[in-house]
Design brief:
Length: 470
């Protein structure tokens, strides 16, 4: 076994009811800003990993996806005299906790997805239903605030000053009660950063209203005080909004922020809308719901669905395989990943079987294995889970070119880089590799460009101030 470690000096207002849609690629810390994170440089592998189809699972193997738990805080905004919203009492605290962990609460909805009322079998056949999203939520704290000025609508300063651990925990602000013009107290919610979608060029939409995701809600306490039916609606409403935070847009229109209905769009959901072919027509928009039921205009040959981010979200919480694929892609690449609590990992490794350039910031939930004959080049940041390894098999190469490999979880250690050899090596020696180099005329230290055969020694190359930390 030959391990080459080479270090070369560096050369010379928030929005109600989703009135805007934004997707944000992760730039997790200041250190990442100095890395070569090109995202879609000519040889980048990012287009493959940016597609939600790459992460889509099936009913037979969804349990191999590790459960990812999102940390949440709930904030209650009351009037200055403490009225008009939930109170700091055992009963109200128990109810707020039940929104997350109780019967029909958020976790139950994401753990036991609804059986779909409407699918696209021309896309997913008999595999259109994944029972469990593998997403969970952990309530870390409930906080009370008194502010007449922010009781109905909060200012950005108010949210920024009162968010708790905003880089690690998603903060939900529940405002007070206010009827509409007809006197009805409609529950509602909004998200300041929506989406997590990829545009038609395969790049990430960089717009954002804020550095951290927040959710805002109103009229929840009025619903709570008026019976269990409205209480269930609170859980539906918040689950719908969390769907936006996870990267999903509305599956209906007209609305401010709906999915694209263009089949050539990179993030187009064929298992929701169809492919657009003659045998699988694009039937967006198919949802014409009104309220809890399904009101279809006369003459429209459409039907409604019980999709979590559909108009009739009160009727169910189905998510398609491609929607789930997008959510789990975003756990690797998008801002929502910063709120993941667990540092567990999948038993299925992420295998690199051909040359790949990672010029994008990615959080891993599994081992990385570089297979013989393949080269993985890292120029941006790779964040590894607890107990995970990067395995470089014989005849493979790992190049960290000004990039960073670090831990994904605070105060946790990953297990480093493991290089493989043979007890009775039969491959070429260092001298033989460069005597027969491909391409010809390589310098005897050009480890970056030299080609390896499957039984050659492993090469791990660190250049341009590459950094590996634990």
């Amino acid at each position: 076994m030959l391990l080459l470690l080479l270090t070369v000096p560096k050369p010379n207002d928030y929005l109600w009811a989703q009135e805007g849609c934004y997707g944000v690629a992760e730039d997790e810390n200041a250190a990442a800003k100095s890395l070569n994170c090109a995202n879609n440089s000519p040889n980048s592998t990012s287009p493959k990993y940016y597609l939600h189809q790459y992460y889509t699972t099936t009913p037979d193997n969804y349990e191999n996806v590790p459960i990812r738990t999102i940390r949440l805080n709930i904030h209650i905004i009351r009037r200055g005299d403490l009225s008009g919203n939930f109170q700091d009492t055992p009963a109200d605290l128990a109810f707020l906790t039940s929104i997350i962990d109780g019967t029909e609460g958020i976790n139950e909805r994401f753990q036991a997805l609804s059986i779909p009322t409407r699918t696209q079998p021309c896309v997913c056949g008999t595999e259109c239903y994944i029972p469990d999203s593998r997403i969970r939520f952990a309530l870390k704290g409930i906080y009370f605030h008194e502010s007449d000025d922010n009781y109905i609508n909060g200012s950005l300063d108010f949210y920024a000053n009162n968010s708790v651990n905003p880089d690690k925990e998603l903060n939900i602000f529940i405002h007070g009660n206010q009827p509409d013009a007809s006197g009805v107290f409609n529950i509602g919610a909004g998200t300041n950063i929506l989406g997590g979608t990829i545009d038609n060029n395969g790049t990430v939409d960089q717009q954002a209203l804020s550095a951290n995701i927040r959710i805002y809600a109103k009229n929840y306490s009025h619903a709570y005080l008026n019976g269990t039916i409205n209480t269930v609606s609170i859980c539906h409403n918040l689950a719908h909004e969390l769907g936006h935070a996870l990267g999903l847009l509305h599956t209906y229109e007209p609305t401010c922020c709906h999915e694209s209905n263009n089949p050539i769009t990179k993030d187009f959901l064929t298992d929701v809308f169809g492919t657009g072919s003659s045998g699988c027509p694009n039937d967006a928009w198919h949802q014409f719901e009104g309220g809890i039921g399904c009101t279809i205009p006369v003459g429209e040959p459409h039907s409604c669905s019980n999709n979590l981010v559909g108009q009739s979200w009160q009727g169910g919480h189905y998510l398609s395989p491609q929607q789930l694929g997008r959510i789990h892609r975003n756990m690797h690449l998008m801002r929502i990943r910063r709120y993941v609590e667990d540092c567990n990992q999948s038993s299925i490794p992420w295998e690199i079987a051909q040359n790949e350039l990672w010029d994008f910031d990615i959080r891993m939930f599994e081992d990385i294995i570089v297979k013989p004959g393949a080269t993985l080049t890292i120029t941006c940041a790779v964040r590894m889970p607890r107990d995970a390894r990067i395995v470089v098999e014989r005849g493979a190469k790992l190049i960290v070119d000004g990039g960073l490999i670090t831990n994904a979880c605070e105060n946790e250690r990953w297990q480093g880089i493991e290089v493989w050899g043979n007890t009775t090596p039969t491959g070429r020696s260092h001298q033989q590799i460069f005597n027969n180099a491909e391409p010809d005329l390589l310098a005897a230290t050009d480890y970056v460009n030299v080609s390896l055969l499957p039984d050659d020694p492993v090469m791990v190359v660190l250049i341009n101030e590459a950094k590996i930390e634990n």
